[in-house]
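Reference record:
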Amino acid sequence: MDILKAATDWVKAELFSTPFFILFGLLFVLASIGFWQFGKTEMARAYISPTLVAGVLLMIIGFGLFFTNKSRLANFPIAYESDASAFVESELARAKGTLKEYRTIVFTAIPLIIAACAIGIMFFNTPIWRASLITTIALLVVILLVDGTAYARMDAYNQQLLSVEKED
């Protein structure tokens, strides 16, 4: 198995996936502008700041991941050519750590935060609190959707790395 090709394919898939954070971020920013321009009620006006913050956060995440993976794509061949076994070892360590983080943060902490926000909606009656909690839920759902597919790709990549390690 050509592990460099597998690594490159994984990064290219990530480069395709991360712009979805940017797209959703732009949608949140556009929603914020819409609430600012057309919001007549107190509840509609309360969404201006939370959706803007969520949109900016998603765009920061998206651009950060995009440029990180873009540099990874350029560095993979160099690292592989200099020492293939060290490349596989470092990628295995990174993949295992990332998978652990996904399980802890994306699949445990985020659902708990969503549940807490949903419960908070029942207890907070002010528009800004409700708008903030609802926007937080929407933001976290976007992260769950995008990172859920990223987890599956990382897991498959990790399996490829493990099979290469067993061959050596």
